[in-house]
């Protein structure tokens, strides 16, 4: 397991993980199996690997791919657990496509494309071995089955869908809708209001996916990566928590990230901004009123009450 090296309590994080078998900074209180070895050098970590599991905050992925490119085995295949999306001048870019293009994996030679895994999967609940489901999106069934074999067990049930873009759009956009849920909680509007915002958010997630990826399946939104992840994130996620504090404390996002997340990263704010800029460029703001309101409250000082008044 490649680990971004940091010094925690005067000791290197990789050394702590390898001696105490616990990631005391990011997953305190849960013992890791002893066959997991933390490696600070990414080239060493990926050398000879035939399956790579990508799970870092999405802003770091390009730089990491550049560093590991020279060591990638020709037989390598990958799966992304990253919930984010990137954008360039021509529109949204899936993280799996960024990984493929940055690593230049000769897909045609290998015929093994990237899969994507996403679901209602709050990390410490999984670490506590509480039951959950997840969704793996694949391009061809064999790859999906292989990845399912790697991840599935009784307490972590994998569902398969032939829809790599759908899984990833769900994982990225639910983080934006969760900001709206946090705003709603700050207003103490209660469960009915939050459910209404989540329902409308889900519709906009589908609309966005269809607009930019015509082959996305609407059934994907009924899987764990869709409606279930939206629910868990809007009730128990970090994006929700920071959005509520953004209103109640009036502190800027970067301060809240620092104060509330202890080094963990907020994904929804960057995604909200990127989605807004893309929709604006495509003259599509009117089709996504809820996500636009969330962006404007988060970045343009729109009064938070508009989260409800704009419905
Ligand atoms: P995080 O938000 O907790 O961020 C901390 C992680 O970022 C640490 O592993 C740290 O080592 C790494 N990091 C910090 N600086 C870095 C740098 N410069 N370069 C590379 N890595 C650096 O991370 P997370 O919660 O593990 O999230 C990773 C991905 O998994 C995200 O896309 C997230 O949406 C997704 N995800 C998270 C959860 C969850 O409950 N935490 C659940 C499902 C999916
Ligand atoms: P947050 O990043 O908002 O904590 O969401 C975690 C998650 O993706 C749960 O499935």
Automatic annotation (TrEMBL):
EC number: 1.1.1.8
Cellular component terms per the entry's GO annotation: cytosol
Coiled-coil portions: none
SUPFAM superfamilies: 6-phosphogluconate dehydrogenase C-terminal domain-like, NAD(P)-binding Rossmann-fold domains
Domain Glycerol-3-phosphate dehydrogenase NAD-dependent C-terminal: 163-308
Gene Ontology molecular function terms on file: glycerol-3-phosphate dehydrogenase (NAD+) activity; NAD binding; protein homodimerization activity
Glycerol-3-phosphate dehydrogenase NAD-dependent N-terminal domain sequence ranges: 1-142
Residues the record lists as binding NAD(+): 60, 123, 238, 265, 267
PROSITE patterns: NAD_G3PDH
Biological process terms in GO annotation: carbohydrate metabolic process; glycerol-3-phosphate catabolic process
Record-stated family: Belongs to the NAD-dependent glycerol-3-phosphate dehydrogenase family.
Binding site for substrate: 83, 238-239
Active-site feature positions: 174 (proton acceptor)
Keywords: NAD, Oxidoreductase
InterPro entries found in the cross-reference section: 6-PGluconate_DH-like_C_sf, 6PGD_dom2, G3P_DH_NAD-dep, G3P_DH_NAD-dep_C, G3P_DH_NAD-dep_euk, G3P_DH_NAD-dep_N, NAD(P)-bd_dom_sf
Superkingdom in the source lineage: Eukaryota
Reaction(s) catalysed by this chain's protein: sn-glycerol 3-phosphate + NAD(+) = dihydroxyacetone phosphate + NADH + H(+)
UniProt protein name: Glycerol-3-phosphate dehydrogenase [NAD(+)]
Native source species: Galdieria sulphuraria (Red alga)
